[in-house]
Structures are given as structure tokens and as C-alpha cells.
Amino acid sequence: MSNPPSAEINFRAQNQLSELFTALDSGTGREVRRMLSTLSPQSIAQLLESSPPRIRHVLWNLIDKEIEGEVLQELSYDVQSQILATMDTEEMVAVMEGLDADDVADILQQLPERLMAEVLSSMSETDRERVESVLAYDEETAGGLMDTDTISVRPNLTLDVVLRYLRRHEQLPESTDSLFVVNRQGQYIGLLPLSRLLTTDPSVTVREIMSTDLEPIPADMPDTEVARLFAKYDWITAPVIDEQNRLVGRITIDDVVDVIREDADHSLMSLAGLDEEEDTFATVRRTAPRRAVWLGINLLTALLASWVINLFQDTIDKVVALAVLMPIVASMGGVAGSQTLTVVIRGMALGQIGRSNLNWLLSRELGSAVLNAMLWAVVIGVIAGLWFDDTRIAVIILVAMVINLITAALAGAILPVALRAMRIDPALAGGVALTTVTDVVGFMSFLGLATLYYG
Amino acid sequence: MSNPPSAEINFRAQNQLSELFTALDSGTGREVRRMLSTLSPQSIAQLLESSPPRIRHVLWNLIDKEIEGEVLQELSYDVQSQILATMDTEEMVAVMEGLDADDVADILQQLPERLMAEVLSSMSETDRERVESVLAYDEETAGGLMDTDTISVRPNLTLDVVLRYLRRHEQLPESTDSLFVVNRQGQYIGLLPLSRLLTTDPSVTVREIMSTDLEPIPADMPDTEVARLFAKYDWITAPVIDEQNRLVGRITIDDVVDVIREDADHSLMSLAGLDEEEDTFATVRRTAPRRAVWLGINLLTALLASWVINLFQDTIDKVVALAVLMPIVASMGGVAGSQTLTVVIRGMALGQIGRSNLNWLLSRELGSAVLNAMLWAVVIGVIAGLWFDDTRIAVIILVAMVINLITAALAGAILPVALRAMRIDPALAGGVALTTVTDVVGFMSFLGLATLYYG
Questions:
Q1: Same domain, B311 and B200
Q2: Residues from chain A contacting residue B375 (CB–CB below 8 Å)
Q3: Residue B228: which residues within 8 A CB-CB, separation 6 or more?
Q4: 3-state class of B351 per DSSP?
Q5: Residue A2 domain-assigned?
Q6: Are residues B345 and B405 in the same domain?
Q7: Based on the domain organization, do A333 and A360 belong to the same domain?
Q8: A167 — contact with chain B (CB < 8 Å)?
């Protein structure tokens, strides 16, 4: 279990932000520029993410040119494209100089096709080739995630030769913890961890100590599966190969951490009809239309519920207490269903749920729903009976509650699986679909039973 | 943007699971044992997580004794403690042999105090000391996350000496990418990346090339902040120090990835009143009571809404169409509010939201809410007017909708910040608090206006 995000944790970042806003208010950019120059690119990116758009653009222009690229690559896609929109081709090329090929590719993919081609053609030839080799793969695959600056060695070399070869480098690529072993055709055959290189007798050959346990990652593997492999096996870097088994790049844990965060965010944001890349400080102009669509979809659900209620107008007209109590049945169904839905959606995201255990899960949810239905249906039955001094209404709400809580559990468990089978994202559509079911069944059972009794 | 969890991604794991279940059904444990012996501890842990409790225990008993410990440490807390509950002290000690101190500490903390002491006292003295040094820190701090197997060197050594010193090791601790530089008092003074060690002339001293940029992590830093630092600066390992600046351990990225996943899960699960460590396949006996509490809390909210409706019984009695339409206003408020709530809760979890930008965020939400309120209030007004052939009801629902959507935006933005200030977890309490507000204001405004018009 982890702490809820607490006040202290954000203290430092929020303090920087306050100081910065004060400095910006006081007018001169010089003080702000001085403050920014003491911060790391990552901290500056965090400040930009935490700033409203207008301040964001002012800040961006005060950043030291030399670290603009590093700051840019740390930003989320939404914020990146806002900032890119203010640059011309030349500025973009300058900003991206010195970044890793995968990061440049990520940034370029935020741009319109035509502009991307323009920026690419203005790059130096080696840079362009490296970036294009990454761009050849879909952004959401291992190929789109990988970097191309690998260090590879042949299996027949002695460690002594490898050590001398490494010493000829000014420095090794960031996060290098292993060298890759390839054959004459450039095909991946094994891994040589730096730590093993350092603890083994230098006269031994690479082949004798290389590790062949780790299966290399095919370039077309989806990034979410790459993330799962990294999390599962505690990798720091992993080799990426093409269809001919040739080493084409490597993926490092820092890029994977971003995928893990996005994946985890995906369910949370989607359940509220939001995009996981949504900029917290997007303008009204960007926010309002996105929200409007979601509200429209939910209005249809609400109208459907109203249509159900409308069927029972006469009964409500006779017993107005029904109108008072009916939202309880619908809302409890919604709450119970969303618990099941969340557990199932998370289980699916973790790769835990499939045909073989779905039945067990269904019966568990059913069992839990029956117990809770009995408990809370009796409680609400007693409350309603006493409140309106009417045993009939007590029985009606009791039975309706049992029906809706059991329906909610079944819907919460089945809907996400069914939606996935239809290739619809359960996290996005599951909540709306569930509410529709629990509202309709809730109103229908409660008012329908009432019509039978009072009609 | 990342792919939604798709069928293919889980294909391999789900296939293993089906095969395993079939083998279990066929009766003999031998086939299952053979299958398990081909899998990594991580894959076995995934299978256990994906199995209902009874199968889980059968599987556990078929695992090769030698990897039990590795499997155990990969499991989530909920599942870990279920399995630990079936062991005696001796078995526990045997299982934990060979695990890292931080992993042993994590597992021990699942046990009752008395049992933990028993297991500790049955361990070898060196093992016990290492584990106790981790146990001295709170589980949710850097100290609780760290491992104690660091390799440290003195600053005045030449690299040549360091290389010879390393070669005397059988192997380096897992995920070692840097050595730590300490002074005579054991105080941390810098970092020596292996990659730099490999690319520098061996006659140079450690002091000349060590890196001092990275600020060491105090042992009492909360784990969520540690995770944020790792994600921000792309660290693989980082040194942990005590109050006297002495190096006490190191944190590696694999432990941090778990914290990042839990943190990200926290908001999703809490919004549905669930624990982020919840076992997907918990039994009914464990699930039902946890869910019951949440349903009870939400019943109070629903009853409050009913009480509000009850105030307007006479008006509903006069115009039954009000009963038909009233859920629309409440439910649209709930949907709009939960969008704002989710954006703010995520922004807070990312450390983006504080006093300095809250006002901007509030006005953005307000602006967006006003625009959407105007759009959808008119739409629903027109629909209601045509449906019941009544312009009064059109105006009433239009105005009520505007009021509730604006209230929802304000509540969605202010509630989480207010809850955090009161040290209540916004992810857990935010949803219920929000629904209470949007239900009460929704019914109150719609029925209140109707009473003014028709009364």
C-alpha cells in the first residue's frame, strides 16, 4: 500500500512554482531566467506542465536554448504539441539536436505529415537515418520505443579486447548496463552485462560468459507488452530485433516507465471519458469540446432512464413516495456495479482475466452481490417502510434492490469482457454501458413491481 | 497514447492458464509440476495471481521448493499473506533464504508482530541484521524500499585498484550500474557509474571522475516521492543515506516500478472504494465485507437525495413529469463533476496542482462548464419541452441543468483540494462527496424551481 499523494510530497515543486509566478508578476524576465538556470530540464518540464498555457509560453521563451530539447522531450504529448506549434522548422531542428533518436521520433510524430518531412530533410544525414529507422515502426510498438545507439560485440572476442574497445569510447550511451553480442550477420545472440564483464577474468571470451536467457524483443511487439515484460523481469535494457533476428536497437527502462504510467492512467482517465495524455492545464477551447461529447453520450443514457420512468407515470401519480425512493435503487446499483467493473478492468489490464477464470470471477461477484444485496435491501426496506409507514413499499424496494445489485454485479463483470471481445475499449465504454444497465434495471424493477402491487 | 489492453497482449498468459487448469483437472500433479518447471518465477507468480484461491494453493504446493522465495516476492501483498498463512516458521525461513533484504522485509511485514519476531530469530545472524536494518524504516519510505548490498569505494583509489577489487567479486549485486563513493566515516560523497569506469584511463583516481550531481535520498523520504524522482531523472539505482549522511543502502528501479504502478492504481481503485492491493481473485468472504462498507456509505448519500426529493412531494404530485425528468439533472451533474474530479486528482498525484495555479484551474473548469451547460441545457430543454408539450418545464430543466453543471465543475475542482487540506484521501472520498453535492443540488434546483413555477 502506498501513501495518498500528500501535501509534503508536492511541497518543493509547488514552492518553486509560487516563486516563479511571483517573479513573473514582478515583470523582469531576468530573475526568472536566473531561477530557471538553476533547475534541471526535468524540473523545468514539471513547472511547464504545472503552468497555465500563457505562463507556459512565457516560461518556454526564458529557458536556456541549450536545454530546450531536453525539456521538450520530458513534456507530455499534449504540452509538446502546444509548444511545437509556436516554432518554425529551423527552430525545431535546432531544439532536437542531441536528443536520442526515439525521443526525436516521439516529438516528430506530434507534427503534421508535411512539417515532419520538412524537419527531417533539414537534419544531418546520420541523424535523419537514425530517426527514420525508429519512425519506420508504429509509435506504440517496441520499434517506436527503442533507441538505436547500441554497443555490440562479437562472441569470439576475449574480454580483454572488449575492455580495450570500450576504453576507446568517450562515454557509453545512457543507461548502458549490458553490451549486446551479435554474429557476423548482425543477428542477436546474447547479452554481456557490464557487471559480469567487470568480475570475470579478462582472458575469457565473450561467448563463454554471455547470457542467453533473455529473449530479445521483436520490434513490432506492442509497447504495453514491452512494459509488462520489463516490470515482470526487472530489466534495465533489452535488445530489439527485426524479423531477420538482426539487432536494431535497445529499449531502456526510462522509456518503459512512461509507458507504465500511461497504461495505469489509461483506465482512470478513460472511465471518466478523458484521454490519458490530457494536459491538466488545457485551455477552455480545448477542454470544452472534449467534455461536450462525453456529456452528450451520457445524456442519452439519462434520457433512456427517463423514458423507463415515463412508462410508470400513472403508478407514480398514485403513490408519490415512489418518486422519492426510486433514485436509491438505481444509484446503489451504479455504485455496486462500478466496484465490480473497476476490479475486472484492472484485472484485464494486468493480464489476469481470461476465459479460464471468468466463470470463477462471475460466481465470486455474484456471491458477494447476493450477500450485500440481502444486507442492504433489508436495511433500506426497513427505512422505507418506517418512513412512509407502508409495508408494501418496503417489500417493493427490498426486492428491487436485490434484483439491481445482482444485475449490477453481473453487468460489471460481463460488460468489460464483452466489450473487449468486440474490440471496444472497456475502460472507455464500460462505465457508460454499466450505468445504462443499472439505471434501466433499477427504475424498471422498482416501478414495475410497484405497478403490480398498487396497479 | 497507449493501446487499450487488448486480447493479443494477454494471449500467452491466458493460454498457459488454460493449459494449467486442464492439467489440474486431469488429476495428476506430475504434468502440472513439469509445466511449472519450464516457467520463470515471474510467470508462475502471474499464474498464481490469475488463479482462484483453491487452485492457487494447489499450484503453490507444486512449485519447485528452490524458487518458492522468488515467486513469493513477486506476488501482491494480498496474495502473499494468503500463502504465508499456510506456512509454519521453519518453512517461512526456508522460503526467504537467498532473497534481498528489502524483499524479505516486505514479506515479513505481512505477518503478525509475534510471528515476525519468530521468523527473524530463526534466521542466520548476518541475514537477520541486514533485514532488521531495513525493518527499522517505515515500509512506505526510501528506507523500507532500499536494499543493503551496496558496493562502495574510497575517493583516493585509482580506477585500476577499483577494477581489481571488483574482479575479486564472484558477481555484483543485481542491477548494479554504479559504485558508491564514501569517505572514512562511511558518508556518501559521490557516484561512479560502471560505464565511466570502463571508458576512463585506469590511472585516474575515483575522485577525479566520480559524479556528484545526484543528491542522495534520505532514508525517511516517502516512497511516492522516491518514485517521482526516479521517473523524473531516469535513475536506475540511487544511494540512500541516514541522518548523518552515511550510506545505508541503495534503491533500484525494479522496486520503484512497483511503487509507480501502485500509485497509479491508487486513484483508480480508490474512486471505486477499493484498495489498490486488492487481489482480483479474493474470496467472497474477503470481498463482501469490504464492498458492504462502501455500499453503506453510498446509501447515506442516496438517502440524502431522497430526503431532498421528499421536500417537494406536493409539487411532484401535481406535475408527475417532474419525476420523469429529475434524474437527468442529477446524473449529468455527476458525470460532469467526475470529469473535473478525475483531472484534478490526477494532477495532484502528479504534483502539478497547488495554491499558485488552483485559481486558473477553477476558472478553466468554470469556463468549460458554462459553455457545456449552455449547449446541453438548451438541448435537454428543447427535448423536455417537446416531450411534455410544456414550455415551463423546458425552462425549469434548462436553468436547473446550468446550475448543476456549474456546481459540479466547482465541486469537482475544490473538493479534492479541500479534502487533501483536511488530510483525507481525495481519491477515496472525492467521488462520494461529489455525488452528494451534485445529487442534492440537482434535485433541489430542479424541484425547487418547479415549486416556484407550479406552486
A1: no
A2: 292
A3: A9, B351
A4: coil
A5: no
A6: yes
A7: yes
A8: yes
Residues B238 and B335 in one domain: no
Query: Judged by CB atoms within 8 Å, which residues 275-334 of A form the interface with B?
Result: 275-278, 280-284, 287-288, 291-292, 294-296, 298-299, 301-303, 305-306, 309-310, 313, 316-317, 320-328, 330-332
Contact A148, A133 (CB under 8 A): yes
Contact flag B263-A302 (C-beta cutoff 8 Å):
no
Please state, in angstroms and rounded to a whole number, the distance separating the CA atoms of residues B446 and B327: 10
CB contact under 8 A, B222 and A269: no
Please say whether the beta carbons of B23 and B47 come within 8 A. Answer: no
Q: Is residue B277 part of a domain?
A: no
Residues in chain A: 455
What does the block give as the cell for B15?
A: 493460454
Counted across chains A and B, CB pairs separated by less than 8 A come out at 458
Contact present, A192 and A210 (Cβ < 8 Å): yes
Distance CA B71, CA B209 (A): 40
Shared-domain flag, residues B289 and B420 = yes
Beta strands in A36-183 (DSSP E): 152-153, 178-182
Q: Name the residue with cell 474490440.
A: A423
A50 touches chain B (CB under 8 A): yes
* Cβ <8 Å between A231 and B257: yes
- List strands edge to edge, sheet with B217-218: B217-218, B237-241, B247-252
Indicate whether B260 and B168 sit together in one domain.
yes
Distance from CA of A231 to the nearest CA of B (A): 7
Question: Are A55 and A132 found together in one domain?
Answer: yes
Q: Which chain B residues have a beta carbon less than 8 Å from that of A379?
A: 299
In B89-148, the residues whose Cβ lies within 8 Å of chain A are 140
Grid cell locating B160: 585500476
DSSP string, A210-257: -B--SPPEETTSBHHHHHHHHHHHT-SEEEEE-TT-BEEEEEEHHHHH
Is there a domain that residue B375 lies in?
yes
3-state class (DSSP) for residue B189: strand
Taking contacts as CB-CB distances below 8 angstroms, the residues of chain B near A198 are: 163, 166-167, 172, 194, 197-198
Q: What is the CATH number of the domain that holds B439?
A: 1.10.357.20
* DSSP assignment letter at B172: P
Q: A224 CA to chain B: closest CA distance, Å?
A: 7
Task: Report the DSSP pairing between strands A178-182 and B188-193.
Answer: unpaired
**From the list B74, B288, B323, which residue is nearest A316 (CB)?**
B323
Task: Residue A159: give the domain boundaries.
Answer: 152-271
Last residue of a domain, one of A125, A145, A165: A145
Q: In whole angstroms, give the CA distance from residue A410 to residue A414.
A: 6
Chosen domain end from A271, A296, A326: A271
DSSP B385: H
Q: Which ipTM score applies to this complex?
A: 0.84
Count: domains in chain B: 3
Question: A192 and A261: one domain?
Answer: yes
Establish if A1 belongs to a structural domain: no
**CATH code where residue B158 lies:** 3.10.580.10
pLDDT tens digits in sequence order for chain A, 455 residues long: 333 333 344 456 667 777 777 777 776 777 788 888 888 888 888 889 888 888 888 889 888 888 888 899 888 888 888 888 888 888 888 888 878 888 888 888 878 888 888 888 888 888 888 888 888 888 889 998 888 888 999 999 999 999 999 998 888 887 788 999 999 999 999 999 998 999 999 999 999 999 998 889 999 999 988 998 888 888 888 999 999 999 999 998 888 888 888 887 888 899 889 988 788 888 888 889 989 999 999 999 999 999 999 999 999 999 999 999 999 999 999 999 999 999 999 888 888 888 788 889 999 999 999 999 999 999 999 999 999 999 999 999 999 999 999 999 999 999 999 999 999 999 999 999 999 999 999 999 999 999 998 87
Secondary structure (3-state) at B247: strand
